[in-house]
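Build the 3D complex.
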Amino acid sequence: MQFNQPAGDNLFDNARLIGRPTPRIDGPLKVSGQAPYAYERHDAAEGQLVGYPVVSTIAQGRITGMDTSAAEAAPGVIGVVTTLEVGEMPTPSGMHTAPLFGGAEVWHYHQAIAVVVAESFEQARAAAALVKVDYDVTKGSFDLEAVWQQKKDDNSEPVARVGDFETAYQAAEVTLDQEYRTPSHSHAMMEPHASIAEWQDGKLTVWTSNQMIEWGRQSLATTLEMDADDIRVDSPYIGGGFGAKLFLRADAVMAALAARKLQRAVKVMLPRPMVMNNTTHRASTIQRIRIGAQADGKITAIAHEAISHTLPGGSGEDAVDQTRKFYAGDNRLIVKHLAEMHLPEANAMRAPGEASGLMALEIAMDEMAEKLGMDPVEFRTVNDTQVDPENPDRTFSDRHFVECLRQGAEAFGWVSRNTTPGGMRDGQWLIGHGVAGAYRGGPATTSGARVRLQDTGRIIVETDMTDIGTGSYTILAQTVAETMGVDLDAVEVRLGDSDFPVSAGSGGQWGAASSTAGAYAACIALREQIAERLRVNDPETLSFANGAVNAGEKQVTLASLAADGELVAEDSISFGDFRDEQVVSTFAAHFVELGVHVGTGEIRLRRMLAACDAGRILNPVTARSQVIGGMVMGVGAAMMEEMAIDTGRGYFPAHDLAGYEVPVHMDIPSQEVIFLDTVDPASSPLKAKGVGELGLCGVAAAVANAVYNATGVRVRSYPMTLDKYLDQLPAV
Amino acid sequence: MRQFSYERAIDPAQAAARAAEVEGAKFIAGGTNLLDLMKLEIETPVHLIDVNGLGLDEITETDEGGLRIGALVRNTALAADERIRRDYPVLTRALVAGASGQLRNKATTAGNLLQRTRCPYFYDTAQPCNKRAPGSGCAALSKGAFSRQLGIIGTSEACIATHPSDMAVGMRALDAVVETITPTGLTRSVPLEEFHLLPGDTPERENVLMPGEMITAVALPAPVGGVHKYHKVRDRASYAFALVSVALIRQPDGTGSVALGGVAPKPWRSVEADAELPNGAEAVMARLLNGARPTEENAFKITLATRTLAAMLAEE
Ligand SMILES: Cc1cc2nc3c(=O)[nH]c(=O)nc-3n(C[C@H](O)[C@H](O)[C@H](O)COP(=O)(O)OP(=O)(O)OC[C@H]3O[C@@H](n4cnc5c(N)ncnc54)[C@H](O)[C@@H]3O)c2cc1C
Ligand code: SF4
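Done.
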């Protein structure tokens, strides 16, 4: 199905199931421990061996020798595969920067360099500790501040330049020029990377935990230099990813190499302390923002320049991206610098670009509002735009950012807050309120599905779409049940298997909009088949309800249509160029109330509220869960999450969940989410967009702005740990 | 994890004797610290002596009017004990500020005193660490290292790690005494103040226990009264080790005792600093943290300790 023009009125406008609060259908399996995750697929392959990774302990250099004899002689050990014996292997894809395995070169700390395979996990782990490695160490550079100092004045190669920023900024009545810092973040999803691999007759099956099945399959084919058709990847349940599992990672490669060498099924999990340096992370950034405005608050000049680190050849963090579209202003300058460093690979993490970019931009907006003497809600409202500021001929498909601000402010009771920073106390707590805006693109991409009507009237939907905890199972069931006129429990959803049609996968918050459209396309194909069977020329004249199809006077049950064998239909949705001719995006406003302890500087949240504009909300239960989860992650980014860099050794030393703190229940008080009642016909046939990343965007800045409002101390460096402002707090 | 053998001790004297007899033996109590360290091969005992079944899990009254806490009393049981809550509330508060409910159900009094540091380099066996591998150097003191969590006082050129226990900080404010049994069956009592050692040149030596010596109890003197508080400051609201923690016992006349956690290789307290309590937080910390040698990253702990105590004193 081609989606070549905005959706007209369709069945989703009078929906029975889409848009209804629907508890996730995979919930019972998960809470009863019956949903098998990758490492627990004990029945998937017989005689599984366990591989334990050996990782590099230098940041940069070459391996000059490896001695595996002691490991090989250890109890239970079946074999060892080393990076030297397999030699250099291709980098898995254009989206990877460093190779995952193979060869003598060390790109980063904890790069996988061997896997020790034994009968049991304990034996493999003990033996892995016996592998001896010699290195030739190269001295690396790991200090982002130093590179920033060299590069920050060079804006000769901007990402975008509109009008004359410098002149407009000079002429502006009110100006702001500040630097902001965001640290590296770890995805810290619950389930670490894990894979089981098995070879049979030259064909490889990998049971794994991966957000993007087809990317994973193609990357395996590239890495192992084999035909993708000989590879099957299966990942029905995923314990979170946040981008860490967008790409093939070393667990799968090591499992595949070891299984091939040993002719047995092998499973490999990355132990938690390896995840942070072995896999990817969100890069740290330094950002400079300049804003010039007229006294009435209208922005006339805006510049956003940022640097982030990346391995050589990588693309870094796109922290400036949202600033190209979020607010109006005739004169604009956008610059992105890269600092090449041999830290572990920086790559996508939930809301890549926007998450860090808005952490800076939305503090800057708060600072600017204060300079102008304006309410920060009003200042943002004044600078709303309905067109792409870099190209005013391009309009937003559907943008209600101002309504997010208004409805959010209303529900939160924004007007009654204290507006004097440091001016509100409750015992030893300084109370503050903050607001921030959120912007995140609303992409959609080709997505396929197959539907199979059974003689029981049940419908099975198969797609390689993944559910990373987001609710894909449920919204796909809703979509199919809606389109085919059956009950929700008449639909069975099968996901994450590369034998199924290729879907959009889960990433960039494109999954929900794309995959439901793909399932819809397959259902329409099935409806066409049914029309043919019933010898009805125009399938549109058929109506589907209560497990039956009505053709004029005639009513036939779906079950009877499949009485002689299942009906199978497959299709995929593809999105036409018209979609890119507009800006399809999602918006939100976040409000936070918190206390800062006047003595210790500890921050305790009191309440949070988000108002979101993300097109049709397919399922308010799962969508809310996405948004509140994003808000928790935003609190983490504001208050504690940081992968500190050892700039001498070139790695993240606090690489476990004791060192990398994420919020606990006690950090998160009441959370409220409002979804605006909007639909975006330009986005998809269901008029839906994503919310999974939107929920995170802007949250940290709302916390930061509330801390300022509470204390009168402006912190421009995340996380806002108390050491950064303690000495500026008032006396106890 | 290396292979190891295991036995259940019969009584404390036998446990101590066996521990001295078998080279590379270690006691195991709740196992919440030891097992984690064994998995990472930071601890590599070849033999484990399980001391759980020795009847050391009771809290009894002493002749001096205090309490004797058995070495195997779980942190949860200790924190919930009515007598502790009534007469030594600083200890309950310190305990419940530590770890999580599940961990406290397993963690024991002795194990808690002997838990090892949380320095990130101690945990990464690829890095130099004098405490883990004597003589290898201290990664935390090298240029560019991450030292925000580490110690500011009582540290040395060889090691700047802290002792992470909360319980011990509460006990230190209460003048607790550690009771042990040696491999030859002798018992001795060591004031908690003298129990943990400062690192000096030998950061791998963390306490005064002799090989095989086993902790049997911790004794608390008769209740001292006063208002008891424990404020643990950290980056999140729960389930994190202290940046700084302050145990405070304050009498109606303004005197009392102050012990700090998160700043030193042992719970940090001094009589001279206690004497300054009537003069306020600044005066106490000027004494208590006199001679502190923080890194650039953790110098804030001095301000934090001072402000935390000031806030505790200012509260009703
Ligand atoms: C995730 C996590 C978070 C934590 N957070 C905190 C926190 O916030 N605050 C805090 O204070 N603690 C915290 N802890 C540490 C916890 O308190 C300790 O692990 C626990 O107290 C250790 O007690 P255990 O009985 O399990 O000791 P074990 O692990 O059994 O033993 C520890 C050591 O003591 C020795 N030992 C045990 N019993 C005896 C004995 N009778 N005589 C001589 N030696 C003995 C063992 O040989 C071993 O060396 C945390 C731990 C974890 C895992
Ligand atoms: S501070 Fe102590 S524990 Fe940490 S690396 Fe140095 S020697 Fe090891």
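The longest helix of chain A spans residues 511-533.
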